[in-house]
Amino acid sequence: MRPGVLGFAGQDQPRRTSSSVPQYLLEDAIASGSGATTHVVVTQPRRIAAISVAERVADERGEPAPGSPGPASTTGYHVRLGAAVTRHTRLTFCTTGILLRRLAGDPSLKGVTHVVVDEVHERSLQSDFLIALLRDLLAARRAEREAAAAAGGGGGPPPPQLKVVLMSATLDAKLFANYFGGCPVLHAAGRTFPVSRMFLEDVYEVTGYRLASDAPAALRRHGPSTAHQYTQSVVGGSRAARDLVSRGFGDDEALSAPLNPDYDPEAYSTDVPVFVRRNLARVDEHRIDYDLLEALLGHIDAASEPGAVLVFLPGIGEINMLYDRLTAQRAFSNKGAAAGARCVVLPLHSAVPPAGQRAALRPPPAGLRKVVLATNIAETSLTIEDVVAVVDTGRHKERRFNPSRAMSMLVEDWVSAASAQQRAGRAGRVRPGVCYATYTRRRFEGGGMRRYGAPEITRVPLEELVLQILLMGLGPVSEFLARVLEPPQPRAVTAALEVLKQVGALEPPAPPASSAALTTAPQQPQQLQPPPQQPGQVAAQPLPQPLPQAQTPGQVAMPQTSASLAAAAALAAARREVLSPLGRHLALLPVAPRLGKLLVVGALLGCLAPAVTIAAAMSHKSPFLTPTEDRGEAERARRALAAPGAGGIAAGQQSDHLLLVAAYELWRIAGSSKYGGSARAAAACAKKHFLHGQTLEQLAEMRCQLAAMLADARLVQPAGVKSGGGGGDEFGGGGGGGHGKGALAAAGQWLDDPLAPWNRHARDPVMVKAALAAALSPAVAVMCEDSSPTGPPRWADAAPGAGAGEEPSCAVL
């Protein structure tokens, strides 16, 4: 059994394992007399979870909230662009990316005695990377201790043994135990209160919901049914007569010839009501049935005990759809009890501002029931204490990458059975709870869901991970990735290296060197260079110095790279897997390499503000709306931004990217008090130009975050803005100590300063397009001048064989 590692699989307890286990570790250290030298670092997959758990732990320990004035707290947090730690901090809750940034500069994690990795069942790319690094670190510390013992103490005191705890309510115990050489796994079964489960067939029965044959969630035949053919032959062309005769058939045809391929008539006895079997026979289980969700929430509100309802939906779009439908009803109108409302409806997802996220966690106003519409952010990372009912659609969205086509896309799919179990566990914390699943029992119990989700490292592009592996000097990429928990496909690794070569993030091939030269004079990593010294400058090629190591136990910083990695760096250099100056800059930014290059080039060419807008939209989504009923008018409004006399950066241009910048600038200026605008004016502007206001607000937040990270990475140096605050939340992201709301607010000011050197060409469409071409190459094509004005255009492709074509939503062709 490998010492120092423990797996902990525990369902919800009276005290949440995320908050209680770290405290147990600290209290045990205090009892043994080593509390002063103990530092427990707890990783969470999301920023809001790290902050909320830290606040809960401080409250449980009777201490002030982290970062608040008053006596020092032993509990703190560190997330991207925000840290609340002091020299008294002994429990630091941070995002996985923050700890990875610490490891990038301090591979031995000096001063850290315990690492608790929470929610390991999510199998994020970051957590799997962290677990691989921790396994190597455990072996290194063990070797150092053995060497110190063999030397008899002559070489100084040995480093403390590192202890690692892996936690999850649905831990794949065998997989993790084997990876760590047979480490023990503790199981803590049971919940505060029991949770009963109802599946789709039960939901149909308790609500009395009838799925109409023409409902959006109903499957339809591609050709005419037998009943339809008979009706057509007997009645003819009269629509009213056909409907009357069709009703005479009832819906029995749905039972005799079911449309749902997953429906098994033999699985349901005749005791099951006919309308339930009819629903199951025609339902498209892969679609969200909003009519059913409305009926179910109405039933829960009328029949359930007081308490919150948590609804799991795949993504932000589905949350917005259900939110709009619910709030249009009096009972869910969010207008208060005096106006006849019985519920308050709150969205909860990563794009909701922190104040809105906290509102979803607080009790609702007296006399109202709280209904929280959430993504899987509420599955594990956040705990809503007053939930008595969960509605689980069983769907989520995840990124998937096809290395053969070098394409990544967001795909909606069924959650794993483990995730479904986690979701059900959100109920029953204050009294016996109920989970209403809008998928069948057969799907859950009969193999229609994977037992565990596919690890992210096997289904997403690996460029950002490869950048970190090379930045940390971990040796040849393929060899390191072969040692992770579940390695990615070799062709995915090759594809990532090829993209980084195309971007210019890797040094070009060098002339072959002799093996003797490689062994006697290993190549050292290029010395990091200082940034510009004058405020307001834009950094060109110099790379920022790593931050000094933290001076207090609680601070997680990024110190100098260890010289012990020189051999691995030399081997990687021999294979030419060496970061270029640009690559080292990209490794500090938490975006895809091509978008990171767009930010770097945009700053150098003096068009940073539009570059950040484009990068934010490409990372998130376009704000342009395409309503079905007003599609033509929406397209005309979009094209108007490119009209020669439009006045914005897109005027007279053929560029969807510039249209995006022009639309955002219109909205930003309309809402800016600096230009006499207001929130109402911004809303009117968005409506006039068919823009999604909430998406624009999210893009504004993302722009501030990206700008703050650029300043933190010293790619730009605004006057009066402190750079180099610490590690980032994502791989290589800037941020950390001292950064928070103030940094984001400041970034919103200096980013759009038209007089700043990084914006000297921000209004020049040629410079912006030059930055785009430089960043996105070779994924660039030019329309041939001899293209037919009436037929499809011909393209000169910078990447032959890639198959260039126009995006269906393109507004300029």
Structure characteristics:
813 residues, alpha/beta, Rossmann fold, 4 domains, eight-stranded mixed β-sheet, six-stranded parallel β-sheet, 29 helices, 18 strands, 11% strand
Rg, rounded, reads: 29 Å
Most strands sheet: 8 strands, mixed
Instruction: Specify the helix fraction band.
Output: 25-40%
Assess the beta-strand content as a share of residues: 5-15%
Uncertain regions spanning at least 5 consecutive residues: 223-231, 242-254, 514-537, 539-564, 725-739
Number of folding domains?
4
- Topology, number of strands: 18
What structural class do the secondary elements suggest?
A: alpha/beta
What would the principal axes of the Cα set say about the shape? Answer: globular
**Order of neighbouring strands in the sheet with most strands:** 4-3-5-2-6-7-1-8
Number of helices: 29
Mean pLDDT: 81
Distance between the termini: 64 Å
Show the helix and strand layout.
Blueprint: E1 5-10, H1 17-31, E2 40-44, H2 47-60, E3 75-79, E4 82-84, E5 91-95, H3 96-105, E6 114-117, H4 125-150, E7 163-168, H5 173-179, E8 185-188, E9 195-198, H6 200-207, H7 226-235, H8 239-248, H9 252-256, H10 274-282, H11 290-303, E10 308-312, H12 316-327, E11 343-348, H13 354-361, E12 369-374, E13 387-392, E14 395-402, E15 407-414, H14 417-424, E16 433-437, H15 441-445, H16 463-471, H17 477-481, H18 490-503, H19 515-520, H20 566-574, H21 581-586, H22 593-604, H23 608-619, H24 631-640, H25 656-671, H26 679-688, H27 693-712, H28 741-750, H29 765-776, E17 781-783, E18 795-797
Parallel strand pairs: 1-7, 1-8, 2-5, 2-6, 3-5, 6-7, 9-16, 10-12, 10-13, 11-12, 13-16
Antiparallel strand pairs: 3-4, 14-15, 17-18
Helix pairs in contact: 1-2, 3-4, 6-10, 6-11, 7-8, 22-23, 22-29, 23-25, 23-27, 25-26, 27-28
Domain Helicase C-terminal: 292-473
Domain Helicase ATP-binding: 22-189
GO molecular function: helicase activity; RNA binding
